[in-house]
Amino acid sequence: MSTPFLSDSAPGWFRWLSRLVLRVGIWRAVAAITAVVAIAAVGLSQGVISVLGHGDRWIAFISASLCSVTLTPLLGSLILRLVFELDRAQKQLTILATQDDLTGVHNRRHFMAVVQREWDRARRYSTASALLLIDADHFKRVNDQHGHLCGDELLRAIAKSVGSSLRQADVLARFGGEELIVFLPHTDPLGALDVAERIRERVQALSVPWKGSTVSTTVSIGMAPMRDELPSLDWMIHEADTALYAAKSDGRNCVRTLPFEPSRSGGAFETHRR
Ligand SMILES: Nc1nc2c(ncn2[C@@H]2O[C@H](COP(=O)(O)OP(=O)(O)OP(=O)(O)O)[C@@H](O)[C@H]2O)c(=O)[nH]1
Question: Which domains does the chain have, with CATH numbers?
Answer without folding.
Answer: 12-98 (no CATH), 108-272 (3.30.70.270)
